[in-house]
Amino acid sequence: MFEETSKFNPNIKLYMFQTGTLKTKLKYIKMNQSNEDFEIPVPWFLIKHPEGDVVIDGGNAIEVAIDKHAHWGAIVDAYDPTMEKSENCVDQAKSVGTNVSDVRYLIQSHLHLDHSGGVGRFPNAVHVVQRLEYDYAFNPDWFAAPAYIRKDFDKPNIHWKFLNDRRTDFFDLYGDGVIKIIFSPGHSPGHQSILLNLPQSGNILLTIDAAYTLDHWENKCLPGLVHSSSDAANSVKKLRKVAKENNALIVTGHDPVGWLNFKKAPMFFYE
Q1: What's the CATH number where 166 sits?
Q2: Closest CA to 60 of 28, 83, 40, 29
Q3: Nearest C-alpha neighbor of 188 from the set 253, 251, 101
Q4: Which of 127, 132, 141, 203 has a CA-to-CA distance to 171 between 20 and 30 Å?
Q5: For residue range 176-188, what is the model confidence (pLDDT) as tens digits?
Q6: Number of domains in the chain
Q7: pTM metric for this prediction
């Protein structure tokens, strides 16, 4: 079933989008490093699949482009978003022919403010998130609280599907091997990464924030914001094994240099 669906289906495509950038300090991205200015991309992803389109995160919410201070508050002092209103995930999805009502799933890697911009924007989507992450987002530790903008995800009429850490690890979204969700905690308690298998491009591993940057992927630093350093290190170890076994292309979460190397939507895509 996997071979038939993934290898030979021309209708499966991966689009890599960006909802602007965050201007920050290097120490907030790479733990214990300098106070120099550092600007990072804010990616999100769309997968076209014959069973229904899938959004992965949604980047920054559109409200960030309208009034970042009103929406994010004081965290703008540490993570200052630069985003045009047109860069919101709904308009970008429409730019590649996606009808927002037809999006079947929205996978939330985690619920931090630069990833929760898609919640509730696709009215018929089932929102797939780790139960650990969902519960923590409503009652985070003090040091993590600014990273969760509750009005982004605490909305009525959201259809949530909860995964349960290692019990649902490598959850196969459509049962065809194309989209597998991997439990990768550390950056946040319920973080998850995504392994894709595309017809021509093969395996692509979206580490999301399990590895912010290639330095983190290569065990040269920890992320600037971390819930558990040991979990973060173990998740990178786990994902490196997955990448090796699947000969996967690695896409880290916010690496400004690495991000330049990928095909960008709407003009380009992976298939």
Answers
A1: 3.60.15.10
A2: 83
A3: 253
A4: 141
A5: 999 999 999 999 9
A6: 1
A7: 0.94
